[in-house]
Amino acid sequence: MAFEAEERPDRPIAKFESMLKTDDVYFFDAEDFEDIIHHYLNNGKMSLAKKAIKIGLTQHPSTIELKLLEVEVHVFENNLELAESMLDSLQTIDSNNEEIYIQRANIFSKKDDHSTAIKLLEKALSLSEDAIDIHSLLGMEHLFMDNFEEAKKHFIQCVLFDEQDYASLYNIIYCFDFLEDYDGAIEFLNDYLEKNPYCEVAWHQLGKQYFAKKMYNEAINAFDFAIISDDTFVGAYFEKGKILERLKRYNEAIENYEFTIEIEDPSAFAYLRIGKCHEKLGNTELAKLNYYKTVHEDPLLDKGWLAITNFYMKQKDYLKAKEYITKAINIEEENLFYWEKNAYINEALGLIEEAEMAYQKMVDLGDCELKTWLLWSSLVLKKGDPHSAIQILQQALEFYPSNSDVLYKIAGAHMVLDQTIKAKEFLVKALKANTKKVAMFKLEFPQFKNNVWINNIILEFGNSSK
Q1: How is the chain split into domains, by residue range?
Q2: What pLDDT sits at residue 7?
Q3: Are 83 and 103 in contact (CB under 8 A)?
Q4: DSSP H helical segments within 12-163, as ranges?
Q5: pLDDT-derived band of residue 341, with 50, 70 and 90 as boundaries?
Q6: Which of 159, 141, 158 is nearest to 150 (CA)?
Q7: What is d(CA 400, CA 405) in angstroms, rounded to the nearest whole number?
Q8: Angle between the N-to-C axes of helices 200-212 and 182-195, in degrees from 0 to 180, rounded to the nearest 10
Q9: What is the pTM (predicted TM-score) of this model?
Q10: Whole-angstrom Cα distance, residue 309 to residue 446?
Q11: Do residues 383 and 409 touch, judged by C-beta distance below 8 A?
């Protein structure tokens, strides 16, 4: 049975949901269905949106707007061929409907054909009286193509229409940042703030622009205005803290970081920065306490584990440092930075085998840095294993075929093995690459400092070091 008019829910959404709970069917205007469908689409309730479309088209089968919403759902679900077919039919009925061009643009965007999507959106723009949403879509398409100047123009149109459109405001600043046009961003934000003096988002973004230009006092003032506009704006406190830390005003920085903890749930990043500040102030116990809080709050934050490891390394407490870097590795075994610290700590403790394993793990994880090969080979040379050192350095040569540091080390390793011909070959290559590194070579292999044939080769290349 149908409700009497006065018994039915007033709001279309409540009325629609009431209908779904019963066997009754209520009649809705086409505009009501549009509102209902938009509500569900905006809230991610796709199944309810599809039900509303189905019922809406049953009651209003010729309504183009409802059919276009059905197309939008098909595009969202990647039923692109079906969506295009429906658009072809709709275009024969209403060739000047901008929504048809918008949905076609969405299809081409999904196919990564952004230039075609832009042309279709420009056509839609020429047909539309309400162009703001189209400007937003055009901005995004230009972003996909890295056309930052064009994207910026469209997002500016969005903000001119709606000063509270913070998504577009952020996108404008993103474009300025990518173009490294900090002065342009500052000018734009100051103009915006003339009209919106209490917009904490704009003050916050202005502060970040000043920070990028190292205009620290101006940045602090901007963050202060952001805080005046909204004294619960965590981002402003945090950014202000970072600048105060940069200016070595550590106690003030700590205060700002602590505000963020008071306002919101504790943050591992805040504890980390507080710990760093206390360490700079020489408050070792407070630094250590905050580093502990950092890793407790977020065990996956590698900067936290590295901070507490570095803390103990600076104190030359390598056993404690090893304890914490081992905990870190147990949580995230594939973290390259952890293995780098592990190698250094084990070498400092004289645990050569474990240090070697750490260097091997670093290479297995894709570390191809020159420093890694050189440190690893130096370790095995100290261990008295020139054969392994040569194997390691040969791998380094694949990435750095003309690097003099690698070539000198290989020459030295061959000399240790009395492989004179090979030693000469690599020494000559090293000298051709860089004669200035001879002094370092002699420091690393002092046993060959007075070797006659080595000095003769060096003289041939006019090296002043004898």
Answers
A1: 392-466
A2: 42
A3: yes
A4: 12-20, 30-42, 46-59, 64-76, 80-93, 98-110, 114-127, 132-144, 148-161
A5: very high
A6: 141
A7: 10
A8: 160
A9: 0.76
A10: 34
A11: no
Q: Which residues contact 164 (CB under 8 A, 6 or more apart)?
A: none
- Integer angstrom CA distances of residue 432 from 130, 365, 376, 457: 70, 33, 24, 11
What pLDDT digit, counting tens, does each position of 180-229 carry? 999 999 999 999 999 999 999 999 999 999 999 999 999 999 999 999 99
Burial class of residue 93, CB neighbours in 10 A (0-12, 13-18, 19+): exposed
Q: Among candidates 38, 4, 6, which has minimal Cα distance to 24?
A: 4
**What does the chain come to in residues?**
466
The string of pLDDT tens digits covering residues 378-413 is 999 999 999 999 999 999 999 999 999 999 999 999
CA neighbor of 374 nearest in space, from 345, 399, 405: 405
Give dist(CA 205, CA 177) in Å, integer.
Answer: 11
Compute the CA torsion angle 183, 187, 193, 199 (nearest 10 deg). Answer: -30
pLDDT of residue 5: 37
Confidence of residue 462 (pLDDT cuts 50, 70, 90): low
